[in-house]
Amino acid sequence: MARSVKNKIRWGTIFLFLLVVLSGGFSIYYLVKLRTLSKNVLTANYESLQYSHSMQKALDSVQYGKTSFIDSFELQLKQQETNTTEPGETEATNRLRIYFEKLKNRDSSVTNINDIGNELHSILSLNMKAIKQKNEKAERSAENAMSVLITIVAFIFIVGFTFAFNFPSVLTTPIQKLTQAIKAISEKDYSHRIHVESKDEFGQLANAFNEMAERLEYFESSNLNKIMFEKARAEAVINSLKDASIGIDKNNFVLFANRQALQLLGLKAEGAVGKSTDELNKKNDLFKFLVENESTNPFKIVVDGKENYYVKELIEISQGEPGSKVIVLKNITSFKELDVAKTDFISTVSHELKTPLASSDFSLKLLEDERIDKSEKKELIQQLKNDNQRMLRILSELLNMSQVEAGKIQLDIQSVNPNQIVESSIKAVGANAKEKGLHLQNEIEAGLPNIKADPDKINWVLNNFLANAITYAPFESQITITVVKKNDQISFAVSDSGQGIEEKYLSRIFERYFQVPGRSDKKGSGIGLAICKEFIEAMSGKIWVRSKIGEGSTFGFDIPVFV
């Protein structure tokens, strides 16, 4: 009984083979029959035509006095006498023989020659007519044979198609049931069973599957399932950790590695979990460094072309037997960048303070010199004032930043006229703009309502925008201050025609301590725009920037209308 499926397949294959052989046999039989019939049509009649044409050529030669062709005529005539197949052909051949004998006896009269020609024409006509008749008969036979062959092939095709359509169901029906059962099990429907009545291999497979389903159903309700659930939950927690984590047991085999760790190592889970540390050390230099290096100093890893800084933390796990451990990699890149930025900031501020202090010291020494006249002293005093204002501006930025970082921005919100804000800022930076030959153009929409803002803070922001524009604008160019109403807000904008800012830096331009790379000759403290952003947002406004390389920059902010 265990071999019944094989027997079904074997007998089905034999049946299809017999159908193919039977179809081929009938086809070969009728093809041979048609070929034989065609051969019979061509052989005797075409030979008679050939003999007749040869005798006609010999007769033509004899007419021209070439008696040597009589022997050729005699040879062809003898062959024709043995090849008479059509009614009347024998009589015509016999008459041809009589006339030829006269020719041999030197009767070369025109009448005799014409009689020989007429008999040759008769033989030709009889054979041509016979060829036509036999050809028509052959065509009818071919048509009949083709009809019979088509009928047989159609019958065999119908039988074969019926068999091929029904026989696979013997095999596919149990397979379909098994497929449905597997899908049910994959959806955790462990109560699903396969019902197959046959006792063959499919029946045995169904019984084995049903037994497996029963065990899975039992397993689902057992304590082991709870353990597996806890394991899956632990893996989910490990993968949710922000820091890269690698667990190693006391036998130095990797217990787990979350997604962050696998990404840093450049490995897949199946290539790391369950592997020994010695095996991974040989294939992965970073893993070897993490396992063997006991230093806790920060180190650098390049990820996607970007430098990232990490510190390693080693956690020993003791559950009766010491030796298991977890390696945790904490990403300190943001802290490292902040540390570098603050270092640069301190260096920049120190330089910014040193320059006016050194200039002031030099000016004071010159003032002590009695050789300096009044006009020069006046210029030195003005220079001292400028240096003092520069230091006050730097200290003001530091004070504002300390308020921002402490979250203690003090605001005096009131109704402020936009025109007064612009006029005050233009006066504050007018002298610096004049030194570079810059033209400050203001385009203020008429009839603007007052805004809801702190006048000192709003002036500080606009002054900062104008100071930056003066710094980066080309000599003798124009800086435009635009003020317009947009819905329920007033929009302030400062535009210059400087070199512009690359698009990739625009999203970071208002970050603390950020400075656009490549401008070492015009670096500021890196906190001015960050303070502007904090001030504007504290007044319920929005700060923005637009810039393109070679087209200049536009810095602006939107402040609510005073209601």
Could you name the key traits of this structure?
alpha+beta; single chain; five-stranded mixed sheet; five-stranded antiparallel sheet; 12 strands; elongated; 563 residues
Provide a descriptive summary of the structure in words.
This protein is α+β, with helices and mostly antiparallel strands and 563 residues long. Helices cover 61% and strands 14% of the residues. It has helices at 4-63, 70-81, 89-104, 110-166, 168-186, 201-220, 223-240, 259-265, 277-283, 285-292, 333-367, 374-406, 418-435, 455-472, 503-506, 528-538; strands at 244-248, 254-257, 299-303, 306-317, 324-331, 414-416, 439-444, 451-453, 478-486, 489-495, 542-548, 552-560. The strands form 3 sheets. The chain has a 5-stranded antiparallel β-sheet with strand order 2-1-5-4-3. Strands 7-9-10-12-11 form a 5-stranded mixed β-sheet. Helix 2 (70-81) packs antiparallel against helix 3 and helix 11 runs antiparallel to helix 12 (374-406). The radius of gyration is 55 Å and the shape is elongated. The mean pLDDT is 78.
Mean pLDDT: 78
Low-confidence segments, given as residue ranges, are: none
The largest β sheet comes out as:
5 strands, antiparallel
Helix content: 55-70%
Number of strands: 12
- What is the ordering of alpha helices and beta strands? HHHHHHHEEHHHEEEHHEHEEHEEHHEE
Widest sheet, order of strands = 2-1-5-4-3
Whole-Å distance between the termini? 95 Å
* Total of DSSP H or I helical runs spanning 4+ residues: 16
Counting helices, strands and paired strands, the structural category is alpha+beta
Shape verdict: elongated
- Strand fraction band? 5-15%
Q: Which radius of gyration do the C-alpha atoms yield? A: 55 Å
